[in-house]
Structure formats: structure tokens, C-alpha cells
Amino acid sequence: MGLCMKEKFLKIPSALQKQLLIWFLVGTLSMIILMASCFFMPDWNLIVPCILFAVACLVSGWVLWEKCVYHKYVVIEGTCTGIERFRFHRYIRAIQILSDDHDIEIVAPGAIKYLAIGDAVSVYVAENVPIYETDGRMVICSILAVTKGTIRDNSPQQKQD
């Protein structure tokens, strides 16, 4: 018997839930803007980009939903060993992680800003993402989500009697 969408959503890790909400909310907002522009200013120069943007967001959200529901992702947990920032030090360009004696570099880790060397990191990666090797380090250029801390840190601890 199948689960309802709410139950499926609640079984997804919180980092991926956040990504799903962002994709679907941005897609829905662009659909609202599309309907308003069709009603108030029926101009094709505004309608076509809104249609394309809405479709891209909703399709990306649906693809992420399918990956999450069918567990087509891998979680990499490790310790941050290096951080490479952009020129003005606000956003992170790449992070290096030590996970099970593997040195991994995550390029463009997304919205994570507050990370320090030595922090535990969990990275969600699609199963079929290409992994490159450079200078003895595995390099991943496409991720689904990244969080500070490990999954074991976020899970409720069971009481032992």
C-alpha cells in the first residue's frame, strides 16, 4: 500500500526537504507571476521567460522528488579539512572532506556559508553523479544538498533501559 505524499515527504532528510520546498515554491511563484502578467500585461517578452522558468523549476523539483522518494542518492559524511572561498570571502567555492580515508573535494557546495575546518559535514549526492580524480583527490561537481553536521547528530537518540 502506498504512502501519502506527506508521509513520503516527512521520510526525506531535512536538507533535501528544504531543497524540494525551494524548487516548488519558486516554480509556484513564477506561475503566479505568469498568470498576473497574462492578465495585466499580455506581452510575450514577459510571458515566455516566465513559462520557461516555471517549467524548469517544477521539473527540477519533480526530478529531485523522484530521487528522494526512491532513495537514488548517497550520503557522504566526513570532516571538513579545507575551505576555498571566493575572492571576497563571503561564499564558499569548494570544500575538502576526509571521509573513510578518502579525500573528497566538493565544488560549488551551494548555500552553506558558515563552515569551519574540523566541522562534520553531510553531503547528499545523486547515485549517478560523475566523480573525477585529480591529484589523488576525488572531485564531485554536482550535489543535491549539504549540511553542517552528520546524520547521526541529527537523529534522535534512543533511550537504553
Layout of helices and strands:
Blueprint: H1 5-11, H2 14-40, H3 44-69, E1 73-85, E2 92-99, E3 102-107, E4 120-126, E5 131-134, E6 137-140, E7 145-148, H4 151-154
Parallel strand pairs: 3-6
Antiparallel strand pairs: 1-2, 1-4, 2-3, 4-7, 5-6
Helix pairs in contact: 2-3
Would you mind describing this structure in some detail?
β1 (73-85) and β2 (92-99) form a beta hairpin. The chain has 161 residues and is of the alpha+beta class. The protein contains four helices and seven strands; from the N terminus they run αααβββββββα. It has helices at 5-11, 14-40, 44-69, 151-154; strands at 73-85, 92-99, 102-107, 120-126, 131-134, 137-140, 145-148. α2 (14-40) packs antiparallel against α3 (44-69). It has a seven-stranded mixed beta sheet.
Highlighted features:
single chain, 161 residues, alpha+beta, 7-stranded mixed β-sheet, 7 strands, disordered C terminus
Overview in brief:
The chain is an alpha+beta fold.
**How many E-type strands?**
7
With strands numbered from the N-terminus, the spatial order across the biggest sheet is 5-6-3-2-1-4-7
Radius of gyration: 19 Å
Low-confidence stretches at least 5 residues in length (pLDDT < 50)? 153-161
Helical fraction? 25-40%
Count of runs of 4 or more consecutive helical residues: 4
| Share in β-strands | 25-35%
Biggest beta sheet attributes: 7 strands, mixed
> How would you state the average pLDDT, rounded?
84
Q: What series of H and E elements makes up the topology?
A: HHHEEEEEEEH
- What's the N-to-C terminus distance? 34 Å
Label the structural class.
Answer: alpha+beta
Gross morphology is: globular
